[in-house]
Write a structure and sequence with these properties.
Belongs to the LanC-like protein family. By secondary structure, this protein is mainly alpha-helical. The chain has a domain of 131 residues. Helices cover 50% and strands 3% of the residues. The chain contains 15 helices and four strands. The strands form two sheets. The chain has a two-stranded antiparallel ribbon with strand order 1-2. It is globular and about 55 Å long. Bound molecules: zinc ion. The site of zinc ion (ZN) has 5 residues, from loops.
């Protein structure tokens, strides 16, 4: 499923013509700041306009499933896109549109999962953010209080640790609120981090794998960003509450699992080398290595992130489509994070090439996702990525790397 699209020859190398040009932006000429060319930006803007038109024309009526309020595949993810469109100036009424989508979700909370992507904290965080921007203090405080009450679910024994629907996803929510909305009790954050570490140690395998932290989901030890250890470790780094040297050692052990291709397995025991997604494979691992490098400065982590980016360039144009979770937009974000960290414009160029592929959205014979308009599987995620490419140095994989 992670096969590259054979019709596009990626072995040619990179041709800057038409996508990037370099110009000196600092007077002392010490730093070269690459820019997307006017021609490319024009095409990018035109594609954003075209895809937004498609989303707004088609995502109405029975095409909206109001029973799915999640950020991952549901209505709150669309709301999050509109907050971004508002921020970047593309939709001046974006906050109102976001509210139209997310407000009904607050009446449909299920009190079953605490994570951002698939649980109640997604709609609560997105609503809190919109209310904050609209200066509605009572309402955002109410959302934050409800979010804090989800701690009980996050701490339950049968709650998994993963990003998608578990504790690390709840941890993300707390960091999201702390960064964008209001202060959060540090002890609450610490208690979730402690629980994740405790749980990780109980599945750890220091003898054969060397890892002290490992996690289980549905009886399996997953490694990728959505369900597995790489995503959880990224979030532990982001919390700033676990010793970076300790996490760095875990990252060193996980590095040993790399396939010859540069990709990483999705779970243990190691199976075949076929998935190159944010959810499973090297794109998700990239963020962990970048985070480890940022926190420790160890060059080995940066080298691993670059290795991941190389594997994404070779194998990351997917038949699964243009989305974030297991699609081209998500893989492009991994290239962008390597560009931001290394300042090597090769990776900006490659992310732009992936964007260029999205310019012909729906015309490559890729698989139609189950939730075709959603943030993580579908059109909204592609638009989110294309919009962020307008400012590539600040682009961050949403709902995961943007805290
Ligand atoms: Zn996926």
């Amino acid at each position: 499923m992670g096969k590259k699209i054979q019709s596009l020859d990626l072995t040619i190398g990179y041709n800057f013509l038409g996508i990037l040009y370099s110009k000196n932006t600092l007077s002392d000429n010490k730093s070269i700041c690459p820019q997307l060319t006017d021609d490319f930006l024009q095409k990018l803007n035109s594609c954003i306009g075209k895809l937004l038109y498609k989303l707004e024309k088609e995502y109405t009526g029975s095409n909206i499933n109001w029973n799915d309020c999640s950020v991952y595949t549901g209505v709150s993810g669309i709301a999050l896109l509109y907050v971004r469109l508002y921020d970047i100036g593309i939709r001046p009424d974006g906050l109102q549109t976001a509210l139209k989508f997310v407000e009904p979700c607050l009446q449909k909370l299920k009190n079953a999962k605490a994570s951002f992507l698939c649980g109640d904290s997604g709609p609560l965080c997105v609503a809190a953010l919109v209310y904050k921007r609209l200066n509605n203090v009572d309402k955002y405080e109410s959302c934050v209080n409800q979010l804090i009450n989800l701690r009980a679910i996050a701490m339950k024994g049968d709650t998994p640790d993963e990003i998608l629907s578990g504790r690390a996803g709840y941890l993300y929510s707390l960091l999201f609120i702390k960064e964008r909305v209001t202060s959060v009790d540090e002890e609450l954050i610490r208690s979730i981090v402690k629980e994740i570490v405790r749980s990780g140690r109980s599945y750890g395998d220091p003898d054969s794998l060397g890892v002290s932290l490992m996690f289980e989901w549905h009886g399996k030890r997953y490694l990728g960003a959505a369900h597995g250890v790489s995503g959880i470790i990224s979030m532990l780094f982001k919390s700033g509450l676990v010793d970076s040297r300790q996490l760095s050692k875990e990252v060193d052990c996980l590095r040993a699992l790399q396939f010859k291709s540069g990709n990483y397995p999705s779970s243990l025991p190691i199976g075949s080398d076929k998935l190159v997604h944010w959810c499973h494979g090297s794109p998700g691992f990239t963020f962990m290595f970048v985070e480890a490098y940022r926190k420790t400065g160890a060059e080995c982590h940066l080298k691993s992130a670059v290795d991941c980016a190389e594997s994404i360039w070779r194998m990351g144009l997917l038949r699964k489509g243009y989305g974030l979770c297991h699609g081209i937009a998500g893989n492009a974000y991994a290239l962008l994070t390597v560009y931001q960290t290394t300042q090597d414009i090769k990776y900006l160029h490659r992310a732009a090439k992936f964007a260029e592929f999205c310019f012909d959205y729906g015309k490559h014979g890729c698989k139609q996702p189950d939730r075709p308009y959603s943030l993580f599987e579908g059109l909204a995620g592609t638009i989110y990525f294309l919009v962020e490419l307008l400012e590539p140095m600040s682009a961050k994989f949403p709902s995961f790397d943007d805290v």
